[in-house]
């Protein structure tokens, strides 16, 4: 899982973050991320925890998405409002599609810093790569010549004279020594050194200087990144700020005085209102106390009312139960169906009694006949038969 093949550790995270930052600078990531509100990356941004973990995690996911899109993927940029777990799952899936090792625990990627985060970014950057091109040099004659200003002021002679005045001592020796620097160190020369007398008239020299002076101008292209430009701008800003300090201080002093006067006026007005409304304030406090007492009394009465309502509900339930039992008993007392049933049962009993009497009579008749037949002479055989 380590992009560099080194042992894991905190120092390795810092080393990987250094390489990540350098590779991102080669890709000009500033042009993409700075307009979106992202701040510049530091040399330890993803190597250590940040004071704003949500911003760090969002920066990491957005950067990884941008790198994967640079490789030809079509990934949707994450948002601050997305679920971190879903974002990590989508990122892991896209990394596998890209061919980047994604066998990191989701909790490591969700932190937004550490070795896993740096390894993912470094793997993506290594996969993106960077093409180093040959430097392009502008030709020496590409600079346009300055236009000749026929009406140039003659004050430029002072500038040329200043440049000429910077000749070194050796140059002066060469000039006065006949054009050889060795003449200074030669021994045995007995002739004294004398100044060369010019053979050109001063007026002709001045006219020639006026003619060639515009052509001696050098067009200097100012570079915004050059330190002298920064120094000049800093001095200009310093002078501008220094010129505005005194008026701003005076304005701030005036505002301070006005604020102090307003505060004092408000304090006096507040004291006056407190004095005028003292009785009303006391009356209001008394009414507040009365209101609190009434509210407590109302709460007590309300509690008593709730208790009585509960008791009434219980009594009502008992009354309803008693009334139901009385209705049941009354309906049982006025119902004649039991009497009808009793009468029917009595009729059936009478029928059964008559049938039984008939059966008893038949049985008695048979017993009497049998007794008579057994008492006659020679009736034993008949009785048996």
Main attributes of the structure:
disordered C terminus, 385 residues, disordered N terminus, 66% helix, 13 helices
Low-confidence stretches: 1-9, 141-169, 174-189, 381-385
What fraction of residues sit in β-strands?
under 5%
What fraction, in percent, of the residue positions are helical? 55-70%
Query: What structural category characterises the helix and strand content?
Result: mainly alpha
Label the overall shape.
Answer: elongated
Q: What is the ordering of alpha helices and beta strands?
A: HHHHHHHHHHHHH
C-alpha termini separation: 124 Å
Radius of gyration: 61 Å
Mean pLDDT equals: 78
Query: What is the makeup of the main sheet?
Result: none
Number of helices: 13
Counted beta strands = 0
Can you characterise this structure?
The protein is mostly helical and 385 residues long. The chain is built from 13 helices and no strands. The chain has helices spanning 10-26, 30-33, 53-70, 84-98, 106-110, 115-128, 156-165, 169-176, 202-212, 227-276, 278-334, 337-375, 379-384. Helix 1 packs parallel to helix 6 (115-128), helix 3 runs parallel beside helix 4 (84-98) and helix 10 crosses helix 11 (278-334). The model is unreliable at 1-9, 141-169, 174-189 and 381-385 (pLDDT under 50).
């Amino acid at each position: 899982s380590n992009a560099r093949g080194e042992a894991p550790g905190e120092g390795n995270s810092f080393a990987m973050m250094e390489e990540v930052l350098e590779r991102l600078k080669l890709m000009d990531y500033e042009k993409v991320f700075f307009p979106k509100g992202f701040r510049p990356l530091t040399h330890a941004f993803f190597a250590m925890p940040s004071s704003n973990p949500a911003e760090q995690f969002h920066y990491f996911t957005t950067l990884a998405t941008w790198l994967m899109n640079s490789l030809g993927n079509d990934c949707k940029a994450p948002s601050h409002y997305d679920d971190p777990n879903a974002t990590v799952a989508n990122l892991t899936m896209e990394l596998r599609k890209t061919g980047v090792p994604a066998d990191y625990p989701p909790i490591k990627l969700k932190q937004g810093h550490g070795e896993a985060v740096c390894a993912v970014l470094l793997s993506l950057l290594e996969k993106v790569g960077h093409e180093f091109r040959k430097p392009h040099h502008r030709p020496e004659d590409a600079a346009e010549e300055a236009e000749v200003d026929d009406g140039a002021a003659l004050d430029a002679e002072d500038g040329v004279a200043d440049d000429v005045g910077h000749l070194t001592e050796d140059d002066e020796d060469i000039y006065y020594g006949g054009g050889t620097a060795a003449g200074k160190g030669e021994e045995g020369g007995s002739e004294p050194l004398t100044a060369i007398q010019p053979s050109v008239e001063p007026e002709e020299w001045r006219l020639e200087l006026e003619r060639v002076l515009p052509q001696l101008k050098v067009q200097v292209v100012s570079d915004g990144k050059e330190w002298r430009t920064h120094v000049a701008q800093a001095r200009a800003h310093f002078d501008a700020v220094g010129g505005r300090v005194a008026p701003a201080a005076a304005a701030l002093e005036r505002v301070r005085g006005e604020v102090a006067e307003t505060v004092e006026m408000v304090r006096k007005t507040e004291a006056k209102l407190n004095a005028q409304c003292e009785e009303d304030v006391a009356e209001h406090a008394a009414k507040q106390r009365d209101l609190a007492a009434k509210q407590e009394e109302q709460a007590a009465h309300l509690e008593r009312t709730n208790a009585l309502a509960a008791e009434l509900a219980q009594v009502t339930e008992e009354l309803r139960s008693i009334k139901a039992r009385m209705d049941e008993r009354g309906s049982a007392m006025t119902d004649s169906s039991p009497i009808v049933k009793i009468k029917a049962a009595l009729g059936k009993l009478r029928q059964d009694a008559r049938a039984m009497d008939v059966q008893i009579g038949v049985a008695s008749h048979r017993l009497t006949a049998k007794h008579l037949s057994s008492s006659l002479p020679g009736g034993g055989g008949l009785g048996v038969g």
